[in-house]
Design a protein that fits this description.
four-stranded antiparallel β-sheet, 1 helix, globular
Length: 74
């Protein structure tokens, strides 16, 4: 199976004086043809993670690789 989407140590932090860790060290791998669900409590970072993957938002650190191309370096 080929890897469609991979995140490596993805972090998204907000704030300067008080840091909010919206996404903190998320690594995942999704293979072509597979299905997945993203579930969690309100405020757990689901939308922030999806916004980073879709490039609506930028990451603080980490890598997002789609079809072998690191989109965090674009």
């Amino acid at each position: 199976m080929s890897t469609l989407l991979k995140t490596e140590h993805l972090k998204k932090y907000y704030g300067k004086k008080k840091i909010v860790k919206a996404v903190d060290d998320v690594s995942l791998e999704i293979h072509a043809g597979s299905s997945m669900a993203l579930i969690g409590e309100s405020g757990s970072g689901k939308t922030t993670l999806l916004n980073c993957i879709s490039t609506i938002d930028t990451v603080t650190t980490g890598n997002i690789i789609i079809n072998g191309k690191d989109i965090t370096k674009l």
